[in-house]
Amino acid sequence: MRAAHLKALRMSPSPATSVYRLNQPLAFDIQSGPFKADPMPTFAAMRAAGPVVPIKVAFLGRAWVTTTHAATLAMVKDNSLFVQEGRHAGKSGVAGFQWWMPRSLKALADSMLQKDEPDHRRLRKLVDGAFARRDILAMRGNIDRIADGILDGFEGRDTVDLAAEFSRRLPLEVICDLLGLPHEDRSAFADLARRALSVTSAVGMVLAMGALGRMVDYIRGQVGAARRDPRPGRIGDLVHAEEAGDRLDESELLSMIGLLLIAGFETTTHLISDSVWALEQHPDQKAWLLADPGSRMERAVEELARFTTPVQSTKPRYVARDTEFFGQPLRRGELILSLIAAANADPAEFEHPEELRLDRFPNPHLVFSSGVHFCLGQQLARVETQAALTRLYARFPDLTLAAPDRIEWIERLGMRGAKALPLRLNAAARRLAA
Ligand code: HEM
After folding, report:
1. Could you give the domains of the chain?
2. Could you identify the atom of ligand 1 that is nearest to the CA of residue 124?
3. What is the pLDDT of residues 405-425, one digit of tens each?
4. Of 167, 83, 226, which Cα lies nearest the Cα of 391?
5. Who contacts 148 (Cβ-Cβ below 8 Å, separation ≥6)?
6. pLDDT digits (tens, 9 = 90+) for 357-384
7. CB atoms < 10 A from the CB of 10, how many?
8. 433 C-alpha vs ligand 1 centroid, how far in Å?
9. Candidates 123, 375, 378, 386: which one to mutate for ligand 1, based on the most atoms within 8 Å of Cβ?
């Protein structure tokens, strides 16, 4: 019945696609707080306008965005038509980076995520092994311990800000462990990373420059220390990485470590917070999950990831040559973003996408993208989120949102996460029940 329904939806003739021009963008807002609080109506309106539409966004300017699952998947899979490096599309620089952005950011930004083949393949091969599923699953015990250690500090308290005190701390500790950063540096590093990466405006960018510069210096210092003195962790491994005689030069090392830190920190923070936010809005789903978290958590995290989609779009690509894509003429050198969050809300692919159904299966979401740049850390993000929710709800099953109507969302393009998530732990009720 369900399969037939989806097939009918997919086969039904799509409305004639309007032909748009990039210099006449449609007025869709995919950045503001109100949009982040409830993005699905905007995605529906965008899909009604077409599978690929032009919009205008801060920093980037005018860009095409994909609005359906089919167009989003096709875009991320076609890495010869949609490219990262300007030189492959008659432009200079890297898609999405502007001349006025600080040099330190560019140093971090010159990573494999910004490269086309064959350079991307060469760099990715050097780190793929370090993220093998088996090795990541083996980290689960350690991740549980880190989560428990943080949660110990919640005992006896009535309210906490989950975002600052748990969702941010856990991924940071895990990524620092993975890289092998010294324990004594972590809180200072966390503070730098928060200031360097929380840029939502041009003014914010100026303020972040100092922190970014210091972050790059810090990473450089750690690379130097690992060269002099071999140490456990990925920085040590990367310094000595050799794959068929290949190794990373100094600037490749810096940008690889920067990429792992940036890609692995804030993304997972938001998935953890957003998941708790979603569960607390859906008490029936929460009760279903907590009745048997051991066997239900894996599937539940897939659906929480789809439903909240914390990374809402990939970074932009350039169109490599004049083409027609899903009925839309695109010109060489134009920018295009794949809007993963809209894909994950597409009724042609998901039955009632607006509903959180923790047992949804199959769940072909694009949370971690696809194609050659699919997320390197997807397994780690899954394991961390499963551990975070399991440990949190084991201790505080009755927790509730302290201010559900006053959640403020970050306004940065492409990220969906609460600035703060105050929780009431209801520890007293738990003690009474015990
Ligand atoms: C909930 C957490 C996460 C989400 C939603 C997420 C999502 C994504 C997405 C959508 C991309 C594709 C970006 C693009 O093509 O423009 C990506 C790439 C990437 N992610 Fe993640 N990510 C998460 C966690 C992590 C973690 C924990 C790490 C590593 C420690 C990581 C490392 C990377 C790297 C290195 C890439 C670039 C891969 C390449 O260019 O080949 N991510 N991620």
Report:
1. 2-433 (1.10.630.10)
2. 41
3. 999 999 888 899 999 999 999
4. 167
5. 391
6. 999 999 999 999 999 999 999 999 999 9
7. 12
8. 42
9. 375
